[in-house]
Amino acid sequence: MFYLITNCGSSDSNDDSVESNFEIELFYTETVSIDELFELTIVGSEGFTEVKASLDDSFDNSSGTLFFEPETTHVRYFTFDKLGINTLYIKAYNEGGIASVKELNVNVVRGNSLKINAVEIVSFSNIDNTWDEEFAETDINRLADVFFIIRKSRAFFSDGAYNFNRDWFRSEVLENQGDLTWDLSEEELYVGSGFPLNFLAADMDEEGLVGDLMLGKDYNYFGFNELDGVQPETFTFNFPDIDLEFIITVEWPD
């Protein structure tokens, strides 16, 4: 099903004498799956020279495009990784600086996405040894205070590319290594089957400084796929060059 939204234009200026019938219409599908490209077509009643998208109506942290020549139709792409209704705000300006603003709601469903329920770090470089050198060899506080980050790309106001790679999830810190296991079952972390993720782990000390458990290797990509028609509940990932091994427990869709 396609949705069409229209509205009347308004001016961002203080000149109350300025009037315009400029408005935009938004064409999009009602429902999209986790990490699936969502296509939005913006159509103006007249040419527009700038268009922006934001996750809130303040547009303080918006992405946008300026045109050399006015356009009446513009297509942009987005992805979503939170289930349920997700809201976008779109603002376009005509050549006279008159703005037309619309809000749209997208229903995000699970589709073929997996849910991450747990992470266990099995090994990393210098595990069980000293990372905090201010402590004696017999002091447990010498061990790494470990946390990890999962990075995930997304499309936001893109031309069809996944144009933002951001920190998607940051774990709590386990002091002195702990059991190196994190229960994420309540975090609602969904990722499309086969969608690439990036894993980073570090040691956090009391001053907020970070020790690099990745030994300078920033790109450790992984993903989840069926194996010969089987849907494993756990995936083990190894990066021997930095002595990193971790296990991720997942839940497949019904």
Explained architecture:
- The strands form 3 sheets. Strands 1, 2, 3, 4, 5, 6, 7, 8 and 11 form a 9-stranded mixed beta sheet that branches.
- This protein has strands at residues 2-6, 10-11, 24-29, 31-33, 38-54, 63-78, 84-94, 98-109, 114-123, 146-154, 156-158, 164-170, 181-183, 189-191, 197-204, 210-212, 221-222, 234-239, 244-251.
- A hairpin with a 3-residue loop joins strand 7 (84-94) and strand 8.
- By secondary structure, it is mainly β.
Which descriptors would you attach to this protein?
single chain, 254 residues, mainly beta, nine-stranded mixed β-sheet, five-stranded antiparallel β-sheet, 0% helix, 53% strand, elongated, disordered N terminus
Brief write-up:
This protein has 254 residues and is mostly beta strands. Helix content is 0%, strand content 53%. It has no helices and 19 strands.
Count of distinct strands: 19
Distance between the termini: 24 Å
Largest sheet: number of strands, sense, barrel closure: 9 strands, mixed
The computed structural class is mainly beta
SSE layout and pairings?
Elements: E1 2-6, E2 10-11, E3 24-29, E4 31-33, E5 38-54, E6 63-78, E7 84-94, E8 98-109, E9 114-123, E10 146-154, E11 156-158, E12 164-170, E13 181-183, E14 189-191, E15 197-204, E16 210-212, E17 221-222, E18 234-239, E19 244-251
Parallel strand pairs: 4-8
Antiparallel strand pairs: 1-3, 2-8, 3-5, 5-6, 5-7, 6-11, 7-8, 9-13, 9-14, 9-19, 10-12, 10-15, 15-16, 15-17, 18-19
